[in-house]
Amino acid sequence: ANYTKLPHSKVGPEHLSTLITFDLGGQWQPIRPPKSDAHGNPIACDKSTGCSLHLSQQFARLYPNTQSETILSVSSAPGIVMATGTVGDSLKGKTSVYLSTDAGITWYQILKGNYLYVMADHGGLMVAMENFRSEGESHTLLYSTDEGKTWLPYQFYEEPVRIYGLKTEPGENSTIVLLFGSRKDEHEWIVFKVDLQPVFQYKCGKDDYKPWTPSNPLTSLPWCLLGHKEVFERRAPSSNCYNGFSYDRPISVQDCPCARQDYECDYGYVVNTATHLQLQGPAGQPPDATTNDSSRALIDKDAHWLDPSFKHQTCIRDTGDMPVEQVGGSSSSTGR
């Protein structure tokens, strides 16, 4: 999420910073920047000075001086996130394209400059095109089949054109990418259809996949995210094969013991420390647990709730609940 302290003048990129959460907003923190750029050169960024990675969102797409791509994450490619961003104390600065393959914990700079981008073939194919607004017209796109480690050019037209957007089929399950553009001095749309299946050597087999599990680095059980452990099958980036239109990704789910991150504050409570809740003003009256109100489920009547509207309500309470404690004379409990 991007946040800002509203200035007296118009809001610009220099007023925006980015924070990330791994527990539905319970805790927020700056994004750790990559250690090196797309060419392997070290990136100097000292977090003690407020330096971190900042990612463009809807504001950057609408801001006339940037109009950069927003964060791209699709359900067909679990854990893979592409984004435009800058390293510094705000979104102001020269943009580049960044990639995370572990759902936002670790980031890599994969392209320098301002690009349009999409994912295809269930995340096994990435396609990027220079944004003509800052990089000029082009007749060549870039593609990667190894999660952004290497990029190769593909010329799709005989003359440079302006490309306004890239699209894939819903579900990102094919190797076909559509490019919407126009010639520099004309106002007629041109649509280019590019099928990149020939860049792959073969169709993926069983040995081309590996298991991947999302995690929360801030918890004592990092593999238990929102109450359960999920294991996804993902294609190994070193395998130059395509998943195919009919690929059905296996997913296994195992519930975990309830942890602090699975709870949220009861009415009238706020987070006091990393592990406790403290009464703040008059406590509100929670819904009667005997009614049909399904929006919340009361776990401990003094301080914390487990919300059944989210997946983390699947955690195993018998082995993970913690007792209510007294802090500063008021009821408190481990909770989010």
Count of helix runs: 2
Beta-strand residue fraction: 25-35%
In the predicted model, the low-confidence regions spanning at least 5 consecutive residues are 282-303, 319-336
Largest sheet: 4 strands, antiparallel
Structural class: mainly beta
Approximately how much helix is present in the residues?
A: under 10%
Number of domains: 3
Instruction: Walk across the major sheet and give the strand order.
Output: 4-5-6-7
Domain VPS10: 1-323
GO cellular component, one term: membrane
Region (Disordered): 317-336
Keywords: Glycoprotein, Membrane, Receptor, Repeat
Structure notes:
By secondary structure, this protein is an all-beta fold. It is 3% helix and 34% strand. It folds into three domains: 2-203, no CATH class; 206-238 and 246-255, no CATH class; 260-332, no CATH class. It has two helices and 26 strands. The strands form nine sheets. The chain has a four-stranded antiparallel beta sheet with strand order 4-5-6-7, with no helix packed on it. A four-stranded antiparallel beta sheet has the order 8-9-10-11. It has a three-stranded antiparallel beta sheet with strand order 1-2-3, with no helix packed on it. The longest helix has 5 residues, at 58-62. It starts with a strand and ends with a strand. It comes from Hirondellea gigas. Pfam families: Sortilin-Vps10 (PF15902), Sortilin_C (PF15901).
